[in-house]
Amino acid sequence: MIEQSILTRTIKSKPLRAKEALKDPFAVRRDINNDSLYDFIEYFWPVINNKEFIPNWHIEKVLCPELEIVAYRVANNQPKLYDLIFNVPPGTTKTMACTVMFPVWCWTKWFWMSFITGSYSSDLALEKAELSRDLIRSDLFKAIYPELNIKTDKDAKGNFKVIKKEQIFAGRASRIHQGGSRYSTSVKATATGFHGHIIIVDDPLNPEQAVSEKELATANRFMGQTLSTRKVEKSVTPTILIMQRLHQDDPSGHILNKKKKKIRHISLPGEIRNYKEQVHPKELIDYYEGELLDPIRMDWGVLEEMETDLGQYGYAGQIGQKPTPPGGGMFKVDHFQMITSMPSHHDQIQIVRYWDKAGSEGKGAFTVGVKMVKMRNGRFIIEDIKRGQWASEQRERIIRQTAEADGGGVQIGIEQEPGSGGLESADATIRNLAGFSCFKDKPGKSEGSKTSRADPFSVQVNNGNVSLLVADWNHKFIDELSNFPFSTFKDQTDASSGAFKKLTSKKIARRVI
After folding, report:
1. Using an 8 Å Cβ cutoff, are 355 and 413 in contact?
2. Residue 452 has pLDDT above 80, yes or no
3. Domains of the chain: residue spans and CATH
């Protein structure tokens, strides 16, 4: 098979190659480049980069072979095996290899291929496209591939077309064949009217955008909706995503969480002292030297400096490919105490069921009701969590049914969202709970962000003062807190923070009937 031959290709003997080079050095160079994307990158590197090329195994043995497999299948019009995701730290030649050099290498073999390339900003996308165009225009490239050029009337950085000249008869003008193209776009732009044989998205988010739910949604929509309609042939055209991890629900996480079968995921953290579990496929661990991905570019001194600059969250995502730091970030979830039965009522001081409401059925945020108990010994127990994506009518019915099941000894908290709509919604729920002890909770500006509100609760969790009653909801609750504040959903954390605030407040709750 083509895939196997690429991954296990053998290099011709040096003496034979030397003899051939004496006769026609350009032909030999073409042959070497034709056989290997890695050799192509190494040879043409000085043309578009003034820094010395630094070889490393992840380029030669992983990035390049994986790209070659994808390209050969497209060239042979074979159905794609998968879409490709590369999660690699910044500064490891991922962009030069995948976004700048790879399309040009493909044109030297299959001049008809068209590419759509994207990034988080138009300027960045155009910069990468310009490097590809500069390579084709260079004297060294023309010496080896004199038949390839940029079409003069289709020569914009963001949209250029390749042509191939063919000499039919000596002394006559060459025949011009219209070739493929490269169209560059960004996650906030469109690609209407353009179709690609291969789609490449390089860094659809930057670190600043990753903390914005709006920017995350825009990037994910671009990957899932915009690009899916821009393929020459859906069964053949692959999408290649290259990025470092920035958020649990960044485009990589969003795609992987869908658990599609046709995804080839390559994850290479910068070090495996703390992030060994992030290596994928696992056999790539054997290539790490001294627990480092690239000892030349990123030794321990460089990584230590990067951790200082990026902070623990930035380092965990961009270097570790896990967008939460070791130990679980804000919440050290391994400090939860697990219990199999509740202590006697005599040892319980106060019980609160706190609701964080949402109103979308089957999508979006979750409605969550956390039942938390304050014990006489100063500890806290989360006894139960109700969680679902319910429409408003069903949600109110479930909240009422839960109150009846909990009994009259449980205070019920309703978070009031900002604005008149939030007030009306909270009031409607209070009326629905007539006969129970209820309170509205409107987080004030002084409490700050969701992260700030969660901080007092996290202190108790991290000091081992919070227990969980063993139940089916444990896994999703622990998973959310382990990734907070970069978790996809924050509803369980918000509800827990609200319940904890009530249990530790010195004010006596006003009974609302």
Report:
1. yes
2. no
3. 2-267 (3.40.50.300), 333-504 (3.30.420.240)
